[in-house]
Amino acid sequence: DIGVDIMWTYTDGLTTVTIIANNLQVQQWIGFGLSLDDKMGDDHVFVCKHLSNNTIDMKRKINPGGYVIPLDAPTNSGGTFTIT
Fold this sequence. Notes:
The chain is mainly β and 84 residues long.
């Protein structure tokens, strides 16, 4: 079984996210979105994938509006990813 714990805080415009995934198999992924309102659109989407070389790929995406496929977040979106 795959287990996932996701914790986040939003303080003074800064979002801090911690994802702990247990038993995520190669080519499996988890994703979730964070929003400041109760609508989909202009929200941050995080996708974590276990790659075949046994590394983890983490991407931040933006949901540009409604129920559409998320796009890669612009490189000037700010923030830092630390994968351990």
